[in-house]
Amino acid sequence: MRKVAGVDGMVLISHGTEEMNWLVVSRELNASELRPEVKTTRISLAFRLDKSCNGEYEAHLDQQPTFAYLPLRKYGMRFILQADFSLPSSREEVDHDSAWNQWLLSKFPDLFVTALKSFCQLSFYKDKHVRAISAFMGFVPLVGEVHGFFSSLPHMILSRLRVSDCLLLEGSDHEWIQPCRALRGWNNNARSFISDGLLQKHVSLSYLNKDIVLSDSLAKELAVQEYSPNLLVQILESLCGESDNIGVLSVEWLSLWLNSFNMALATQSHEKEVDLLTRLRKVPFVPLSDSSYCSMTDGPVWFPCNLSALQLGDLSVIKQFQYLYSNLRTVSPAIFSYCSDEYGGAKRRVENVISILHKLGVKQLSAHEVIKKHILEYNFGEGATETKMELFVEFVSFVFEHFQSHCSECCIEKADIIEKLRKEPIILTTSGFKSPVAETIHFSKEFGNCILVESLICGTGLTWHEVDTTYLNHTKYAVAKWREFFKDLGVSDFVQLLEIQKQVTNVDLPVRDWVSPEMDVFVSEISRTGNLEKSKYLLQVLDELWDDYFIQKVDEGSRPMFFLSTFVKNLRDFKWVASSWDNELHFPTELFYKHEPVFSVVGANAPYAIPKITSKALLKHLGFKVEVKLDDILSVIKSWTNSTSHKASISQMSKLYLLAWDEITLSREKLSHFKSSLCIFLPFIHPPDQAEVVSGVFLSPAEAYWDDPAGCLDLIREMSQEGFPTSTVSSLYPDLYDFFVNACGVLESPSPNKYFQILLQVARVKSPKEAGHVVLRVLLRWADDLSSGKMKSEQLVELINHLVKEESTVLPTIQDRWVSLHSDFGLVCWTNRKELIEQFAVAHNVYFLHFGELTDAEREALSGKLANFFQEIGVISLEEVLSRKAIFYDVVDNSEKACMVNWVLPYAQRYIYSKHPSIYLQLQQVENEKLSQLNVVAVQRLFYKNTLKENTISSASRLECTCLLEGSMLYITTDADTHSIILELSRLFFQGASNLELANFLHTLILMSEVGSTEQQLELYIKHNQRLLDVPAGERTWSLKSFTESTEEDTPIPVQIHTPFQQTRTIKRKNKSSMWPPPSSEVASSSQMSADDCPKMEKISVPKDIFEGEIQTMELKDIPVSIQKDELSLQNQDELKSYHTGRRGELVAYKYFTEIFGTACVKWVNEEFESGLPYDITVEREDGDTEFIEVKATQSDNKDWFIISPAEWNFAGEKGDLFSIAWVFLFDSRKPKVSVLKNPLKLCKKHVLKLVLSL
User: Fold this and answer.
1) What is a biological process (GO) this protein takes part in (predicted)?
2) Eight-class DSSP state of 65
3) Angle made by CA atoms 598, 600, 605, in degrees to the nearest 5
């Protein structure tokens, strides 16, 4: 025996001359869960395929043995099954109780199902999937065919196949479906009318490929559906079970279905046939002549004519009244129509359809007594819909023609038939089907009506019913015959007044009254729709007919004088008359009759009835106004105010107001009523010509003002492109002051709140650029009122409350945005300085008030009275919140500048004490510490950026300057002139504002000193010319802090590491003094020293290689402390040695920090000259903050203290975590060490450091 592996899983087994082809499919399984010692195991299936004589491969379906590497016995399967089964020692049977075997068995169904794919991939089946499926299905074991351990395998395989897509659709090689979705046994006749989509939608089946071979038993096991009469019924039940589905299909389709069903039914037993027919009678599928469908259980159904006629195709009997016949529940004739049928003769098909309908219970129709038994008994209760229109027309036509036939029975019963028809809505009119008893029906002109009513009813939707002309086209009879027939039914030509009896109060007998439902409908519909043309035409018709036709009935002498007929009363009670004033309809009693007595009072601006009528009786009955009264004037004014635009002349309106004034002066009651209704006409054109008719609006007295002192209303009117009415009445009606102000309550001028409301209106329609000047005029008016006392305190509070609301955006800004003083808008301020506005114009949440281009007077007012008003309402000046941030380069020797500033400070103290005592007191109480911390820093170049206080916003550009005061730092450039320095210094005393008078005074003293003036001469000038007082004894003399440190006996504050067993003591240092006036001065104060004694800055370069190796970081705990340590001592030391130690320490610290942060972020401020600043190094951090480093150095290995100046200690407290002390240890020049004390003030509070005071 020889084995040769082929392609696609095929294996060729040769045994002698016999060759066997096997398709082998295998799968590797993970076995570690059941047998940890076994990682994987393989299971396989082998299917034998024999090659036939014609070259095709067919399934070899003999039983095959099961393998466990070696063959076992046969279990009834037609394929080989191989796995590593557990076997007993006899190897005769697979162990039934082995969990391992059960697990292996459970894996074969999935492998078997996947084998179908391998079949289809075989080269000889590749394009013949149908043959592959047929071959595969031959190997499927059925329940009962397999026994022993594998007896459950067929059920498992079949279960997998039922839910797998293992069958192909008809006409496709790639659309797979589950067996339960497949339909077998179908024929071409069935598929001709049951489409794939229809089959899928209604029974969820698809046509199985007809070439797939399945045994009946296998098909049943796989739940493959069989084509049968039951399936046809299921499809029809599903179609009829969904709304409108049966209507989608044609009657031709039903004919085909009935034909197929009748033929399929022949194969069924009698019991099944009865059951299927019973089910079918409940299905509403029978097509009727009216295109509807019904079931046989809904009632009797008839054939449209006798069966012989249907078989011959003669349907002419139903054509004349096809809708009538269709309403008789007759089967649609279309279902019997002849058509080509390649699957059977057409005649045969008709016979099959008749046969099955007859079995279902369809009967032949009897046409006797159609009128009595069908038409008169028809249920008209719901009226005729559009689909029933032809039916009802045929009903009437059928009766009409039947009456023309002179039927003996109908002649006897004609009156009864007419009476019954009158009660039903059976006559087709232009408004649908109507009953002559329920509603009046009219002839149209086509039926001989001579009255033309189209102009009244055309397109209005009125309920004016005319007989439809359809009847004239339905039969051959003349119009006269139809008129006679319809008159019998109650149709008429004219509008009628119907007589009724009405009981009237205080009258014993009933009064004859007249009503006209037609006229009531006319008037009510015109009133509802507002059709002006129909209104005018109806009034014209009434005017023409009133005296000849209507007056005879509405003016009967037998009625009481006070009684109005219902007909006339209804004409008065509807708004149906058009007016010359507007496009609305009115009650007749609301309108004027246009003649001289009325026109002379109100002119053309009154509501006149149109058209003008000529019948005096109609004028009286309808109640039109023929004279003008005070209430009419109020009504006219009200109608004017309701219009969006009104045209009038000032002359005409003046006469109207004068007439009203004359009327209301006679009665206070009339005055009160008139005031509540008065509106004042204000034109858009200003000033208008008195006689010119112009457009305008009406305002109430509360909305108008006699005068506008601010003039903003005129400005608003000039700005408005759409027209803005002036609200000042005095310019229009100057002679009616008493009438408008005293009588009607017009305000003499707008209140602050009114002005505010006006600004709100302006802000809604105009941008700040357009209306900023208007706001300025209002603000100036408010400022004047506040200063003059016209604006009360409560009005100011109310105004402020308005302005701080978020929605009260009436303040214009340079950003062209309306804002209020609400906190959400951020900073709202004002300034006259354009350069500041330019710097902060794009700043976030910063808004500058802007009023457009101002005149010189307005600019002056802005800085004067308006600035005070801004202060009152909470609008601050930009200068109040502005600070300047210094940017400087190259710190240089500050000795000369510092000495000069220190020299003028006592004189500034005397000046402020004498000239500004309140400021001096404030400086002593609040600013004393700030004065004591004043420092002078000399630099080469100096710039500044403007910054908003309490805000991180800075200007984008920087400005160069020669001197700048920032906090307690006075920055001065080397080329700064004396006057500029002193002027900048004056800001220190006047809350950031420079004081020219103080600067001039101090500059004069400096000039006098420079030209050689003695101290006595300076004192004489101070006391006699400036009249300055001496500072009281005991007051501290103002001076720079650096000079205070050098002249006072207080020594710098030592700082000591807090370690036990340490002692400190201090020694006083020698005093030093300033060097001003310069040496060139001939005379100096006794308290001053020469320039030689003033310390000078020396540029010292420190060698960069003073140490080698790496700078080490020393923790605070590692600072050396021993019993033999340096005592805390402030006695005189070698100053040059100390200076060099400090410079070396600063260099070590500078290198230490540059290695950490980089040279770009670290700056040594004392690199070339001693700056005098309370820090030595700055570090720019990534978050934008600057850290300040003060360097302390020592060469002692036992020193645990250092000296810190008051300025340094105060600066440390001010900066907090941004200030550190770098303590540099130089006792080992090769390996210096650095300890960083961050925030020494906090370290003292935590007792890590301690302060020591020494005398």
Assistant:
1) root development
2) E
3) 75
CA distances from 1085 to 41, 898, 903, 907, 1082 (A): 114, 17, 10, 14, 10
Q: What is the dihedral of CA 197, 202, 206, 207, to 10 degrees?
A: -90
Contact between 939 and 976 under an 8 Å Cβ cutoff? The reply is no
Distance, CA of 265 to chain centre: 65
Q: Helix, strand or coil for residue 1227?
A: coil
Residue 1052 has pLDDT above 50, yes or no: no
What is the rounded distance in angstroms from the CA atom of residue 603 to the CA atom of residue 597? 10
Identify the DSSP state of 524: H
- Give the tens place of pLDDT for each residue, 383-417: 556 667 888 888 888 888 877 777 777 778 888 88
Q: From residue 116, how far is each of 52, 113, 206, 903, 1089 by CA, in Å?
A: 21, 6, 20, 111, 117
∠ CA 275-278-283, nearest 5°, is: 130
Question: How far lies 950's CA from each of 695, 827, 844, in Å?
Answer: 55, 11, 14
The answer to whether 472 and 479 are in contact (CB under 8 A) is yes
Measured in residues, the chain has a length of: 1255
Show the CA angle centred on residue 1085, arms to residues 1080 and 1087, nearest 5°: 125
Q: What Å distances lie between residue 917 and 913, 924, 1031, 1038, CA to CA?
A: 5, 10, 11, 16
Write the pLDDT tens digit of every residue in 168-197.
998 887 889 999 999 998 888 888 888 888
Q: Dihedrals φ, ψ of 513, to 5°?
A: -120, 160
SS3 letters for 885-922?
A: EEEEEEEECCHHHHHHHHHHHHHHHHHHHHHCHHHHHH
Contact 262, 352 (CB under 8 A): yes
Alpha helices in 447-509 (DSSP H): 454-457, 470-474, 479-489
Instruction: Mean pLDDT check: name the lowest of 19-33, 415-429, 764-778, 915-929.
Output: 915-929
pTM over 0.70: no
Instruction: State both tokens at 542.
Output: 């009434």
pLDDT tens readout for residues 89-147: 877 789 888 999 999 999 999 999 999 998 988 888 877 888 999 999 999 999 999 99
Integer Cα distance of 388 and 384 in angstroms: 6
Q: How far is the first Cα of the chain from the last one, in angstroms, to the nearest whole number?
A: 121
Q: Are 437 and 448 in contact (CB under 8 A)?
A: no
